Every structure is written in C-alpha cells, then in structure tokens.
Amino acid sequence: MASNIVARCFGDLYTMMQTLTDQSIDSSFIAPNFANMVTKIHDARSPARAAHVNMMTDCMIANMPAEGLRSILRGLLGENASNTAGLTKLASEYLANTRPSSIPPLFTTFNGLPQATIDLPRIQSRYRCLMGCGFGFESVELLTAVVQQIQKLEWDERTDEGQEFLDVLATIDGDIVQSTTAVHKLLLTNSGLRPINPEDSKKIVGLRETLHNYRGITLTRSQDFTFERGLCCLDNLIEGAGNTDQSWKKETAFQKKGFHSSKSALESFYLGSAEVPRMFMGLWQFSSPAWGTASRSKINRHFRKHVDSGLVAYDMADHYGDAEVTFGQFRSAQEDSENIYCATKWAVFEPIQISKEVVDANISERLAAINSTTVELLQFHWQDYNDYQYVEAARLIYEHPNVQSLGLCNFDSDRMCEILESGVQAVSNQVQFSLIDLRPTFKMAESCRKHKVKLLTYGSLCGGFLADKWVGKSAPNLFDEYMTPSHRKYFEMINIWGGWILFQELLAILASISRKHGVPVSSVAIRWVLDHDYVGAVIIGARMGISEHIDENLKAFSFKLGVVDKEAIQGVLKKSRAKDVFEAMGDCGAEYRQ
C-alpha cells in the first residue's frame, strides 16, 4: 500500500512542485526566449491520459515537508531508473509553463558594498534545473543576464565584506562550468562533438563576450576576475565544437614529457612503471556546485598544499566538470610538474562505433584538457556490456603511444578478465570498496590476484559517513543544508548493507579502535581498505578551495590494524547483508548499469 502511495506521488509531480515554493523558485523566474519550449514538448504527441490521484495521496503530497518529498522522489528513481525520463518530462513542462517576462535585480548595494538579493539563490536554483532537464543553452542565456548585472557593480575587495562577495561570485563561476558541461553533453555524438548551430552559438559567444567585457572592467578597477574557470570552459567548448573563428583560439598547450616517480614518506605501489602513493585525491566534487565552489586561486593553493604533503596523485574524468582543465593548468605551472600524477577517464555512456580514429580523437581531447602530451593512467568505462566493442576499445587505448598505462573503471570481474585474457594489459580497476560495500571481496579479489591488477577504490569513507562526526548520531535528513550528493548516494548504501542501527554499531567499534591508535575514525576505515593485498590505493574526495583534511587523511599511514582490531570489525560485518548485496545488486559497477 505504501509503495502505491509513493508511486502516485511521482505521477502528480505538478502538485509536488507547488508545495516547494517556499524553498524553490518563484514562478516568475525562468530563462528568457523560452516560449517555444511548450510547443516542442507537446509536439511529442504523448498519450492523452492522466492517472487519478486519490484524495489521501493528494493530502499527503500537500502536507509532506519539501525535504521529505525530495527523499521520496530520489527513492523512486533509485528503485526504478526508468522514472527519470518521466521526471525530466514533467519538470521540463513545469519550467516551460513558468517562463518569466523579465529578470529582477539580483544584487543591491548597502554602505557601498554589493549584496545578493533573495532573488539570486532563486535564479541559481532555476538555471540549475534547466541544466538538469537538458536545456543547457537556456541556462547559458540566464547566466549571461546574471553576469551583465554583476559587471555594473563596484566594491572594495580589501574589506571582509568584499571578500565575502567574491565567494558569491565564485558560486556563479561554478555554475558557468556546470552549464558548459550541460551544453557539452547536448553536443556529444557517436563520432565526437557536433558543431554548434548558429542560434545556439550566439548564446555561447554572448556569454563569453560578456565575461571578456567584465574581465576588462576588473582590470581597470584592479580587481580579481572571478570567472576564469567558466571562461576557460567556454573557450574549450567553442574550440572543441569546431568553431572556425581563430580569435577564440587557446594558447599553445603545455608540453609535458611524462611522470617521474619520486620517493615520499607515504606508502607507495607501482601502476605500470610509475611508483605512486597509496592515496589518490579524487576530483569528483568538481562535477557539481553541490559541494561548494571556489576561485581558481584558492583551488590552486589547495592543490599545492596537497602536493607539498606528498599527495601527488589525482583522479578525475572527462565528465567531472572542469576537473581536468583546472588540474592541468595547475600542474603545468609547477616547477615539479613531472612529479604530479594524473589518472583521468574516458567514459563511454552512450552507443558509439569504435574505431582507431574515434579512440584517438577522445584521447586527444583528454590530453588537451589536462594540458599535456601524455596521460599517466587513462581509465576506461564502458556502459553497455551487450555491445562487445569494449575489448577493442581497451586494446586501442592500451596501444596508444600517449597513454602510459590503461586502467579500467567499474568493470565487473568477468569483463575485466575478458579484456585481460585477450592480451590487453590493464594495471588497475577503479571500483567502490568500503566497510559498507564489500562486493570486491567476493569475486573481484581473486581476479585481481590472478591478473596482477590493483584496485583503486572510491567510496572508502562512504561519502563522509565513516567519520567521528557521525558516531552516536541519529540518521540524517538527506536534504539538510550540509548534505551533499555523496551523502545521499552512500546513505542508500548503508540502508541496503544493514541499516543505520548496525552502522552505528560499526562506528562505535571504529571509534574504539581509533582511540587506541590515536587517529580519526576515517583513518581506521581507510586503513582497513588498504590492508587488502589487491588494493593499490584509496581515492579520497577533495573539495579543492573549500576545505581540506590533509593531516587527517595522512594519519591512515601512521599505524597498522592488529588482529584484535580486525576481528572486532569483522564481528560487525558478519551481521550485515554484504552477501545479499552482492547477489542482488551484482558485482562491482553493476549499479551503474541497472
């Protein structure tokens, strides 16, 4: 009965959205030039039908807190990914039906200092919805209007308030990065990026010109230009989509000879010929402003601090926002650039016809993004196992002269072995592995030992839940202000693993062990993963420019788990549904192919 009620909630998305007006956008906010969107939607000739929503369900929707509706909707999508198409369709109709006539003032001035009005966060939420619904070009138009209002403002950056306003602008810079990513997705074809049509090109070039104008204004005022990340992404997009105007041409890329291993105090292992630390810093957080955004200067300072601490290996991907570009520009500016290791990815999510030309083009795109002539580790993800081209694609990557080593990403044991037994040498497979996700221990472990493949593990801190701050705490509200997409992803994993009560039992054991060794709970969780012989390194998410936990992370290398420690942990793990998760969810990476 409960599941039927939840299902009906999804069918009545309009009603649900109307209950969110206190936390979402007033209906007067939407991208301009959006009038033809409704027509396009209705041209699809969807069936003229509507399921009845009974009064009890309607009452529940009207009275459920907004965060509750969000959690329920996320749960529906998790149970049945096909619901995503319906959500996107209805959300698109909602956005089209609430298009505005104008954009209100987003900034005001108080005592000579600019401040955001209450309409700025509303408009930001709106254009983020546009991106999510596939209206990347419309989000670009809206961002152009935002920047046009910003360039009229003047303030003194030397004051605390002035610095705080720069942080506000950094969030908008992050939104430009995200918007560019949304446009890039729209342009992807099975043979690369299609050219931007003239109408949409005007929108992209319009934002770029607005940013260039604003940069000129900041130079005359001796102010910081806070949109370097967004402008760089626009440059790359215009060039990658085949724009012929040479005025958009980037400067010559930095030429890098290759990674040279350097000894450090950290534990290390070999990936091919490269000796790297057993802790990589992950840049997934660049894929969304949900983790916060920062200026390029702040990000670079954090990169430098990590490198100086011995954390010289970085994991990123072609779909992690501007992670590759930001990392590449940082590394190429460093005197010790050849001691900094890059592991990026080529992720094939959509149907594609594999050929040498297609593979070469995608590798060239990765090299341009990271500002290098070689990539140390190119990790390969292939979405559709029914399309057997993945073996040929892996072979072409492995043989490419500018790829030092081939890695896999989210491949299950059988397909990983299939690739390796074809004669292709992969040095790693990146998979989820933690005290909460034990799937690698069932089948992947033996395959790794047999073929001498090392795992690069993500999710080893369960999105931040395996930490002191969660010891003894009640289950969180997934849409509280400080909850991130990582929290929501791994909270679901905790529930299917054994639930919050058992998780608290595990945290209590980890806390006891952490006190014994004088380290944080997170260090115990990392150490447990590292102590598996088939694990090469753990990947720890880094919110560059926002926050850093370098000292805390490095403590994972300061101690060893004893037999008693491991037995205590295993005592809790035996109570979990780990085997059921493996059998129901599938081997490593299966959740991405449901």
UniProtKB/TrEMBL annotation:
It comes from the Eukaryota. Keywords: Oxidoreductase. Gene3D superfamilies: NADP-dependent oxidoreductase domain. It comes from Monilinia laxa (Brown rot fungus). GO terms for molecular function: oxidoreductase activity. This is NADP-dependent oxidoreductase domain-containing protein. Residues 279-563 form the NADP-dependent oxidoreductase domain. The keyword Oxidoreductase applies. Signal peptide: none annotated.
